[in-house]
Amino acid sequence: MTLPLRPWYDQPMLYIAESPGRGRGVFAQRQIHSGQLIERAPVIVVPAGQWEGMDRTVLFDYFFAWGEHSAIALGYGSLYNHAYQPNARFVKHFSQQVIEFYALRAIESDEEILINYNVDPGDDSPLWFHVLA
Amino acid sequence: MTLPLRPWYDQPMLYIAESPGRGRGVFAQRQIHSGQLIERAPVIVVPAGQWEGMDRTVLFDYFFAWGEHSAIALGYGSLYNHAYQPNARFVKHFSQQVIEFYALRAIESDEEILINYNVDPGDDSPLWFHVLA
Asked: ipTM, 2 decimals?
């Protein structure tokens, strides 16, 4: 693990608010540039052998695949909602136990930041929940 | 829930680094004043009925009691290490699904921020793991 993970930003960039129909979501506190790093979220890795029964808990909706294991993202990493046309993407750094979130285009202040849970921003494979239009 | 949770700070205050013998920990990026709000961490509430088997996973070490339920703290809330003489305390806001962390005394830059997992900063009840001196 490469530590410390010092904050890379000079100003807070994000806030949490209610996203209609989706529960909480992550919103831009100020304008974010295309390609900009939005957040470096540490994760807790849950080994594959401990996964049993987790699909019957609320945590199932939050986990990221983490190689053969699963991970729960801290920071605001667990609160980004899904879109098939997202404005952000994420990159997993396994050795650092970190997920980085990057803007795919310019994001306006107060715009919700959305990622494609299928990882590839262009992947429109069905998900396990009903996706809002 | 009272939302949005806008960041309350002007500058980043925290970073994650390795804490010898304790894994990751949360450190002060700059001086923090006594009584100052360090972080407002959103939580994911796991209902009591979904708790079964969770004690056999790594998540057991991270959960906060949340009334009759349990909660996993996002932000850096899951990464604060324990001390019987902590320099920070936490307050749960059930309706907001948020845990606030406050400095109990002045904290220097690069000092690790520690909380008493027994909640009451003066409570020296034994914990479920070996506490480093």
From this structure: 0.85
* Amino acid letter for position B31: Q
Residue B122, SS3? Answer: coil
A 86-125 residues with CB < 8 A to B = 97
Rounded Cα distance, B133 and B51, in Å: 31
Class of domain A14-115: mainly beta
Q: Is B20 on the interface with A (CB under 8 A)?
A: no
The pTM of the full predicted model, rounded to 2 decimals, is: 0.86
| CB-based contact B58 A52, cutoff 8 Å | no
CB distance A46 to A54 below 8 Å? yes
CA neighbor of B47 nearest in space, from B62, B67, B61: B67
Q: Name the band, by pLDDT with cuts 50, 70 and 90, for residue B49.
A: confident
Nearest to B75 among A17, A72, A75 (CB): A75
Q: Is A75 on the interface with B (CB under 8 A)?
A: yes
Does residue B37 belong to the interface with chain A, where contact is any CB pair within 8 Å? no
Q: Which residues contact A126 (CB under 8 A, 6 or more apart)?
A: none
What are the boundaries of each domain within chain B?
Answer: 14-115
DSSP 8-state code for residue A121: T
Residues of A in contact with B11 (CB under 8 A): 10-11
Task: Flag residues of chain A having pLDDT under 70.
Answer: 1-11, 119-122, 127-133
B24, A42: Cβ pair inside 8 Å? Answer: yes
